[in-house]
Amino acid sequence: MYAYIKGTIEEITEDNLVLEAGQIGYNIKISSRTANALEGTGTFVKIYTYTLVREDALSLYGFLTRDDLEIFRKLITVNGIGPKGGLAILSVMSADELIFAIASGDAKAISKAPGVGARTAERVILDLKGKISLEDAFLPKENVSVDKPLEGGAGKEKNEAVEALTALGYPAADALRAVRQAVSTENESVEDILKAALKYLY
To answer: Using alpha carbons only, how large is the chain's radius of gyration in Å?
Structure first.
């Protein structure tokens, strides 16, 4: 129904946002991660939305980036993961971290979400592994993000650097975040990226 809503933040709680746009206050369900990223009441923001229509309710779910919205859409197609479960997962990890957790089979990271057990996490991986690409985690972000957007190119090298770090025993989410934070250019090798990323892990 709505692709996004631009408006002024009137109220924020851990799981809900009241956004005023065109003299209408929209109740929008959000993850706690999104709530923490918002600047506060009175600020203007663009929220990407997913509309859930049921016989007894019409609900809006809001996200700061298209990436979060798209991964949420995929999550709720998984049996046992409804909108509540989708927001729970996106409360403990970013879209990029979830993409890497799925690609690397890290069910433990996904199961940290409240109400998401090991079996459900494994189902998320099984159902979505063929529907996401690790390259998606390295695309520049167009909107507000909790984590620093990745700059530069060298996507293949960055993927290899993340995989190398996880092979060394670092958690998948930490490895991805470190590589994203590492200063890099298109000409950097895997070794250069690893050296820069390791500085963020010590």
So the answer is: 18
Choose among 78, 145, 152: nearest CA to 116. Answer: 78
b or e along 73-89 (b: 16 or more beta carbons within 10 Å of the residue's beta carbon)?
ebbbebeebeeebbbbb
Top-confidence residue, 77 or 133 = 77
Are the C-beta atoms of 65 and 54 separated by less than 8 Å?
no
> Would you say 30 and 20 are in contact if contact means Cβ atoms under 8 Å apart?
no
Query: How sure is the predictor about 34, in pLDDT bands with cuts at 50, 70 and 90?
Result: very high
Say if CB 17 and CB 54 are below 8 A apart. Answer: no
> The tokens of 36 are what?
């923490």
Whether residue 145 has pLDDT greater than 80: no
State the greatest distance between any 2 C-alpha atoms of the chain, in Å, as a whole number: 55
Cα 47 to Cα 28: distance, rounded to the nearest angstrom: 9
Contact in structure between 166 and 175 (CB atoms under 8 Å) = yes
Give the containing element (helix H, strand E) for 87: helix 83-92
Distance of CA 87 to the CA centre of its chain: 10
Closest CA to 148 of 185, 183, 111, 113: 183
Decide if 160 contacts 135 (C-beta within 8 A): no
Count other Cβ atoms within 10 Å, centred on residue 158: 25
Give the 3-state secondary structure of residue 125: helix
